[in-house]
Write the structure tokens for this entry.
Amino acid sequence: MSLVDSFEKIPVQIYENDKIASASVAREISDLIRQKQKDGKTCVLGLATGSTPKTLYKELVRLHKTEGLSFKNVVTFNLDEYYPIEPDALQSYHRFMNVHLFDHIDIDKANTHVPDGTIEKNDVRAYAAEYEKKIEMAGGIDYQVLGIGINGHIGFNEPGSGRQSGTRLVALDNTTRLANAYEFASIAQVPRLAITVGINTILKAKKIVLLAWGSHKAPVIRESVEGTTTDHVPASFLQEHNNCVFVLDEGAAQELTRYKSPWLTGEIDWTEKQIRKAVCSMALDLKKPILMLTSNDYNNYGLSDLMVKFGSAYDINLRVFNGMRDTITGWPGGKYSEDVPRHPERREPKSKRVIIFSPHPDDDIISMGGTFIRLHEQGHDVHVGYQTSGNIAVSDEFVMRQIDFAVEFDSIFGIDKSRANGIWQDARAFIKTKKSYQKDTEEIRAIKGLIRRTEARATCRYVGIKDENIHFMNLPFYETGLIEKNPPGEADVQITMDLIKKVKPHQIFAAGDFADPHGTHKVCFDIMIEALKRLKAANDESIKDCVLWLYRGAWAEWDCWDVEMTIPMSPDQVMQKRNGIFIHQSQKDGVVFQGSDSREFWQRAEERNSGTADLYDRLGLPKYAALEAFMKWEY
Ligand code: F6R
């Protein structure tokens, strides 16, 4: 048994990303289906919904379409469904399964089962018993696919669910309702109840594969795999199953001991980053500044190996301290007036062309407002590429307010705008009767996009950049009017390449937000990387001298050992940034599709930037009011 196994109580497979991981799971499922076909048997699959299995279903559809995988002998049972809900509602899991899988394969729909969200409450108990019976009659689940909630739920078995629980009606945790609120216009519309199969039902499956993508799942993955079995983390009960595996991407695996403290699980390659990670983790855990760490601390923390390799605690402390200190600079575009050795950015050219890619119209100011302002003030030619219109995140009330303005404007000035008036009337009428599951008309989406565009432009004016340096890219993948976006395509990459070719940047700043691999930020990142790779492969002049810096989105910050440039902010600069964020009025005072964080964007940004400053302080580095942090990315 390797040391890794002594921490991990469930076998874990880690893949570079969710696509590669899903391809491997899809291959296993297709092998099983084919084997059963050969044996003249049915194959019983237990299926999950949510964002996680989408890549898996896409791959299964591909295997059906291109490799002739047939689902004629497949019977499926889904884990859960909201209650109450109509099967054709936009957010129902019935609809989800049809849209993502069943409508695209040759499965007999009579063989598919998703708990019914329309059953009378009094009948649910009998219905649940029947559901279990059907699974048994079908021969039991051969292969169960699971996702995991950030609170450790599997199916909708929330914390507190017993090991012996069966199919039943459950109340959804507030954290689950918040996490799933992104599918609904507001948290109030997320159902409070659900029907779910039980933990015991899940554990009866012959094989269980739990999938998890993204760093937001990492803490609960660690608890489930390395913690003790407890009903506080229902997924930990999977430790009792003898044929269960967790299939993860690197983000979801990052809290496992083998990643977090690799020196505890065996031999490691001591790169500069790894040394920094070990020493900073130790300093933070022991609540000591880096320069106060002793050889005793190194020994007790399992880092004696590091001392053998790199000298005394004193030497290593200095090495890490100096490295961290050198990340701090007030000159994000390089310091031309002075030759500073080990400065994170090049000195030449004095005035750099810069593109800030902003996935939504406010990420530039939220995530790197201080740096944005400095770059401009220090004489760099700063351009902003607003990647998407951000039009779904504007409330109907806000649109109504703007419509009132426009209509009054026309009447005050006696402008004859019969066409405009028609659009306003239609939009008003639509919003008045709009149902929660309805998507906006094209006109309303255009108005919402316009609102966000004017806010972004106002922010650029506030910073001082010229109108011609503002680029609204309106990437088409985003334009569905729904939370569910189109897959990124050729047009998205072309628009991005065109902008890069036009600006010929020395620096690009972009959102490196990998927490949610299906979120808009990550899709925008993938599109930009594809554009850069293509330009690089073509030896295109426009990027021959271009460095890519990543900021992280509004939710989290880089680990301090990954940071390569930090820009300090004074208390006054923090206020200046806050006022810049306030310009985005449509995003203030509670926004649509808020997700699980109820703080306003300016609060998130400030807490995060002061948090980074506090972290540097705890490590014994200079104390600032706030720090914006960046990581360099090779493309
Ligand atoms: C869905 C289900 C849930 C999800 C979990 C993760 O059928 O049973 O347990 O798997 O909430 O959701 P996503 O994948 O959206 O993060």
